[in-house]
Amino acid sequence: MTSFDVQRVRGQFLILQQQINGYPLVYLDSAATAHKPECVLQAMLDFYRTDNANVHRSAHTLASRATQKFEQARQRVADFLHARRREEIIWTRGTTESINLVAQTWGLQSLQAGDEILLSAMEHHANLVTWQQVARQTGARLRIIPLLESGELDMQAYQAMLSTHTRMVAIVHVSNVLGTVNPVADVVRLAKQAGALTLIDGAQAVAHAPVDVQALGCDFYAFSGHKVYGPTGIGVLYGRKEILAQLPPWQFGGEMIRKVTFTESEFSLPPLRFEAGTPAIAEAVGLSAALDFLCEQLAAGAEVYQQQLLQRLLQGLQQIDGVSLVGQPAARQGVVSVVLAHAHHHDVCQLLDAQGIAVRSGHHCAMPLLHSLGLAGTLRISLGVYNNETEIDAFLQALRQALELLHD
């Protein structure tokens, strides 16, 4: 294994020190939500204790300090994503709202009958359902890029589907079911050649490896704070400045206006145009601290460490009778799903919980993907920066025991 000091990292996560059902907690569900290090909790607590005030709305000292921290957090996100400027960063409640923002502004404004939206067969419901509804409202056609047997995007089919009718390609960076890392830069490059815009769902990507939106070339990129060791209730939408400037607001109220009369309103420039009402200020501060934490871990070797853990998990699963991996992508990050020959995934999940092991069972908000594979659900294991070899081994042993019990 790499020299990454996981014990030092685990010291930041007090939640991991507890026992569940008399066993040490083994948390293997970070794809659903990641735990929060003490530095994130402290940053939010410090804000509430010393700087709490509304932002952008007053000249008093607390408001000025709150606004400064809020906008510094926006700059931190811009730096993290390698955006050109902080005005390209919009605060949302999470990836789902970020996708909806693009669909409800650009989508409803730009799409019409005859236009096409391309999604992959591995999309989360947040991406699929959103564009599905926009297609119905506008008359646009939704087309699904198929997958190879390996669980990878069929790039040959994708290239053949692109045409002058393609207006938007909205695709997940890393699958929350298969763990597949999509070749996003190539997807974007081909979409550009066809004259289409691109939206990347980065919810499962940002916690595992650096992201550079300029290198990717995408028009929009979305992720959630809670999956990158930050608080819930805060998310990010990156959008290229030239495109954001053309989009209408999608929610209305305070903060997003420049001038209001009884008959008309003049709206703020992006990003404030898209941030109606009081924002999640402390959560933005917490997300900034989370990104500091994550970048520190990545610099210390967390990306390689997590890949080594993943390989240990995959090798162990392949040695257990009755366990089959869902997908065999060449590039995978953080997520593994399995089907069980002689047991129901939910029953196994409960037996694992009895030994303090947290994994997830079900369709993982990707029902069409699982149905296309002939599956009703899977057992999903997902890794975080705080997991270690002992936990992987404990999970594998508990899984063997659960399967033996249910098979008998």
TrEMBL record:
Broadest EC class assigned to this enzyme: transferase
GO biological process: cysteine metabolic process
InterPro entries reported in the protein's UniProt record: Aminotrans_V_dom (IPR000192), Aminotrans_V_PyrdxlP_BS (IPR020578), Cys_dSase_SufS (IPR010970), Cysteine_dSase (IPR016454), PyrdxlP-dep_Trfase (IPR015424), PyrdxlP-dep_Trfase_major (IPR015421), PyrdxlP-dep_Trfase_small (IPR015422)
GO MF annotations in UniProt: cysteine desulfurase activity; pyridoxal phosphate binding
Cofactor: pyridoxal 5'-phosphate
Start and end residues of each Aminotransferase class V domain: 26-395
Keyword vocabulary terms for this entry: Pyridoxal phosphate, Transferase
This enzyme's EC code(s): 2.8.1.7
Catalysed conversion reaction: (sulfur carrier)-H + L-cysteine = (sulfur carrier)-SH + L-alanine
Protein family per UniProt: Belongs to the class-V pyridoxal-phosphate-dependent aminotransferase family. Csd subfamily.
UniProt function note: Catalyzes the removal of elemental sulfur and selenium atoms from L-cysteine, L-cystine, L-selenocysteine, and L-selenocystine to produce L-alanine.
Record-given protein name: Cysteine desulfurase
Organism, as annotated: Tolumonas auensis (strain DSM 9187 / NBRC 110442 / TA 4)
Taxonomic classification: Bacteria, Pseudomonadati, Pseudomonadota, Gammaproteobacteria, Aeromonadales
